[in-house]
Amino acid sequence: MANRKKLFFGWTKIKWVISEISKLYSGEKSYFSKKRVESGIGFIIAQWGMIYFLTKKIDVLSMSDLAVWAGIEFLVAGYTVTQIQSEKKLKKISEPTDTMIKS
Question: How many CB atoms lie within 10 A of CB 52?
Fold first, then answer.
């Protein structure tokens, strides 16, 4: 039993992650943000697609093709960061503060 407590990523943590992910699509509050999880999954899929494309076409890519590929990489990464940051800004604006006039 003492050996099980030393494990960082054990069965209890796996169950917790699964339960929190299931809460994402139910009405309950979840530790994770649905938008961030979905944008993270989209980012990972885009990255794997871009890496796959690069590994298959590396022999025939010209310098301009490589520049376009890198530009698309930065576009995907920038879009993901912008979406996460805009979510933070909207959350801060919608939260009332103590200095606001209450009617």
Answer: 10
Reported as a single tens digit per residue, the pLDDT across 59-77 is 888 888 888 888 888 887 7
Q: How far is CA 86 from CA 29, 66, 71, 74, 103, in A?
A: 21, 30, 22, 18, 28
Structure tokens at 94: 């919608």
Q: Tokens in use for 72?
A: 């698309």
pTM: 0.53
Compute the 3-state secondary structure of the chain and give helix, strand, coil in percent, each to the nearest 5. 75, 0, 25
Contact between 30 and 17 under an 8 Å Cβ cutoff? The reply is no
Cβ atoms 80, 42 nearer than 8 A: yes
